[in-house]
Amino acid sequence: MAIPLVRYPLNDGVMMDFNGYVPALTDSVLNELVKKWEWLDNKAIVKYPSFLISAEYGMKYPNFREKYKIPRDTLLFGDSGGVQITTKGKFFDPIEVLRWLENNVDIGFVLDIPPPFSTARPLASKLKELGLFNHKDRAKQSARYYEIMERNRQNYNIKILKVLHGVTKTDLEYWYELTKNIEFDGWALASKPSGTPIIPALHYSFLADKEEMDYWLHYFAISGFTQTLPTIYYIKSKLKRPNEFSFDSSTWILGKIARKYLLPFTNFYLQLAPYARKLDILDSLEKYEPQIVAELFGISNSEVHRYSTEPHRKISANEVDKFGTTPCPCPICSTYSLNELLNNGMLISLHNLWLILLHCKLLDFLSKDPNLIEDYIKIECSARTIEAVEFIKYSEIHGFEQAWNKYKFSLLKSVKKTIPYSTQPKQLTLL
Fold first, then answer.
1. Of 97, 209, 359, 377, which has the maximum CB count within 10 A?
2. Strand pairing report for 107-109 and 312-315
3. What is the DSSP letter of 4?
C-alpha cells in the first residue's frame, strides 16, 4: 500500500499532500460532496487524498469504493462502528465488519466497544443486556472481537489497527494486557475526552514505554485546533516512521452542522447566519440551570458548557453589507461571497477543511525537527499543551510509571474539567 503523495492544485498553484490529517465523513456529507462539489474529481475546489468513513455507513455498500468511484491514490480509512455501539446500541458482526474493511479500505480499525466517559447518556439496552457497563467489561468484549477478526483475516495488503482505550494508568494497563498479543498492524489511540492535549501524550508515552512502535499509529477524533493539534505533531516528530502516522477529526463538518466558520490559528470563530437550535439553547441558559437545559434538549452537560463558553461572534444575514467579505483568502472564500456562505453550510465546511489543512501543513513542517515544534509550542500554545510535551519528555528519561506518578493529579484535573462532575464515570477517580 502506497501512501498518496500526489499533489493537487487547489488555488493558483497552492498544493496539499497527505500530512496525517484524515477528515471524518458521514454518508450524507459524502453524498453531498460527491454530487454537488465533485469532491473526488480533479475539478474539485478542495481536494485532499484521504478521508475516513464508519462501517455503519459504509457497509450499506459492499463495494463502497466502487460505488463512490474513490481513486486508488485516495487513502481510505474505515472505522469499525464501535462508537455507534455505545451511542446507539447498534451492534455489528466483527467478521462482516472485517470483510467490508478488507474489500474497501487502505487502513481499518478492529471492532471495539469504547468505555464510558460520561454518565449523561443513558446506557443502551443492549449494553445492559450484555453486562457491558464499565471499562473492564468492554475491554474483555473488545478483546474477543479482536481475536475473532485476527483468526478470520484474509487480506494482508491493507493495514488493520488495534484500538487502545484509557485515561488512567490502571485502565490503559488492563486494556493493553488483554490485547497486546493479538497480531495486527499497529495501534489506534482513543484520546477521550477530546480537546485535552495531555491525553494523546499519555497514550503515546504509555506505548513508547512498552514497545518499539515500529508500526502505523493513529489517533481518533482529535479536536482542539490551537492546542491538541500541536501535541499530535510533536508526537509525530518522535516516531521512527513519521510517514505512518494519522489522526481523524470531524471538526470541519461543524460548518454544515452549526455554521461554524473557523479562523486561522485561534479558538475564536464566527457563526455565519443564525443556527436555530444553538440560539434556543443559549436563550434557555439565560432562564434555566444548565442541567435543566441539558435535559430539555437531550444533550450532555459538557455540550451545554461548550455552547455557553466557546468564544465566537455571530454574523447574520442582515449584517452582510457591514462586513462585505470574509477574512480569508482560501479557494472557497475567494470564489464565493459572504452571502453565499451564510446560506450554505457545506461551503463553510469546505473553508474549515482548507483552514485545518493549512494549519496541519505548518505543523507537519515544524514536526520535521522535534526542537523546532517544541519551540513553537512554548511560544504559541497554552500551559496545558506545554505540560503535554513535558510529560512526554519526562517519560522518555524516567519511564512512564514515574511520569504518571508526577503528572497524574494534573492530568486527571484536566480531564475532569471537560466532564461535569455529576456525569463522570467512577474510573476517573482511580489512580
1. 97
2. unpaired
3. P
Please name the residue that has the C-alpha cell 493549512. Answer: 358
Among residues 234, 247, 245, 215, which one has the least CA distance to residue 392? 234
Question: According to the model, what pLDDT value does residue 199 have?
Answer: 95
CATH of domain 80-249+368-429: 3.20.20
Strands 312-315 and 8-11: unpaired
pLDDT score of 145: 98
Sequential DSSP letters for 168-229: SHHHHHHHHHHHTTS--SEEEEE--STT-THHHHHHHHHHHHH----SEEEEES---TTTHH
- pLDDT value for 283: 61
CB 22 within 8 A of CB 247: yes
Q: What are phi and psi of 314, to 5 degrees?
A: -85, 135
Nine-digit cell string for 43: 475539478
Grid cell for residue 414: 484536566
* Total residue length of the chain: 431
Secondary structure class of 328 (helix, strand, coil): coil
Amino acid symbol at 177 = E
Q: How far is CA 236 from CA 112, 250, 386, in A?
A: 25, 20, 16
Q: Which three cell numbers stand for residue 426?
A: 467512577
pLDDT at 170: 96
Q: Is 396 exposed, middle or buried (0-12, 13-18, 19+ CB in 10 A)?
A: middle
pLDDT mean by block of 10 residues, the chain; 431 residues: 39 63 91 78 80 95 93 94 87 96 98 80 80 93 98 98 96 98 97 88 98 97 88 97 96 85 84 61 64 61 65 67 85 90 90 93 96 97 96 98 96 72 44 44
Find cell 467489561 and name the residue: 137
Distance CA 2, CA 243 (A): 11
CB contact at 8 A, 182 and 143 = yes
pLDDT, position 210: 98
**Which string of DSSP letters, residue by residue, matches 85-129?**
HHHH-----HHHHHHHHHHH-SEEE----PPPS-SSSPPPHHHHH
Q: Give 271's strand partners.
A: 260, 314
- CA-CA distance, 294 to 291, in Å (whole number)? 5
In whole angstroms, what is the distance from residue 424 CA to residue 94 CA?
A: 30
Burial of 119 (0-12, 13-18, 19+ CB in 10 A): middle
Please state whether the peptide bond connecting residue 115 to the residue before it is cis, i.e. omega within 30 degrees of 0: no
Sign of CA dihedral 102, 210, 221, 115: positive
Domain ranges of the chain: 80-249+368-429, 259-360
pLDDT at position 33, please?
87
